[in-house]
């Protein structure tokens, strides 16, 4: 069992890297990379959310969000508008071009799920996702606790 604990970082890195490579290959014809994928996915479901909400929802720092949105804006997939409630903040909206890309984004997401979970039983799929979420919550709570100590 000790070996499994030693490889969690390596295995999670390898899985994430393979998923990123898959996404990058699929999105290349659209001029965007795997780094913008989660932002587009979130915006397709939550058009017009604040940039700060996007930062929290994807557990990214502000600089990462800004870079991703700059790239998406440059490619014509999003636009930012000043938040009417807070003139210092921005809300992010998808463009018609992003709406047209929506089915492609959803198809890529579906294929990732099917590829990663290929050969898993229904119960294994549910357990895998449950355990991954639990692990993410564990490490996230630890990171937040350490950040609070600084």
Characterise the protein shown here.
The chain contains six helices and two strands. With 150 residues, it is mainly alpha-helical. Helix content is 69%, strand content 10%. The radius of gyration is 17 Å and the shape is globular. It has a two-stranded antiparallel sheet. It has helices spanning 2-27, 37-45, 51-57, 62-74, 96-116, 122-149; strands at 78-83, 86-94. The two termini are 34 Å apart. The mean pLDDT is 92. The chain has two domains: 2-116, Arc Repressor Mutant, subunit A (Orthogonal Bundle), CATH 1.10.10.10; 117-150. A hairpin with a 2-residue loop joins strand 1 and strand 2.
Task: Offer a few descriptive terms.
150 residues; Arc Repressor Mutant, subunit A; two-stranded antiparallel ribbon; 6 helices; 69% helix; globular
Distance between the termini: 34 Å
> In total, how many beta strands?
2
User: Could you say how many structural domains there are in total?
Assistant: 2
Instruction: Give the CATH H-level superfamily of the largest domain.
Output: Winged helix-like DNA-binding domain superfamily/Winged helix DNA-binding domain
A few lines on this structure:
It is built from six helices and two strands.
Topology, element by element:
Blueprint: H1 2-27, H2 37-45, H3 51-57, H4 62-74, E1 78-83, E2 86-94, H5 96-116, H6 122-149
Antiparallel strand pairs: 1-2
Helix pairs in contact: 1-5, 2-5
């Amino acid at each position: 069992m000790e070996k499994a604990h030693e490889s969690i970082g390596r295995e999670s890195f390898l899985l994430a890297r393979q998923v990123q490579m898959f996404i990058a290959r699929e999105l290349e014809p659209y001029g965007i990379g795997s780094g913008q994928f989660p932002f587009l996915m979130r915006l397709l479901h939550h058009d017009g959310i604040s940039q700060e909400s996007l930062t929290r929802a994807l557990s990214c720092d502000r600089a990462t969000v800004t870079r991703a949105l700059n790239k998406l804006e440059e490619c014509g997939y999003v636009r930012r508008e000043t938040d009417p409630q807070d003139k210092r903040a921005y809300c992010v909206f998808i463009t018609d071009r992003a709406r047209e890309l929506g089915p492609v984004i959803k198809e890529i997401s579906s294929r990732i799920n099917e590829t990663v979970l290929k050969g898993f039983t229904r119960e294994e799929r549910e357990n895998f996702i449950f355990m991954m979420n639990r692990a993410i919550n564990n490490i996230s709570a630890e990171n937040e606790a350490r950040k609070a100590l600084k």
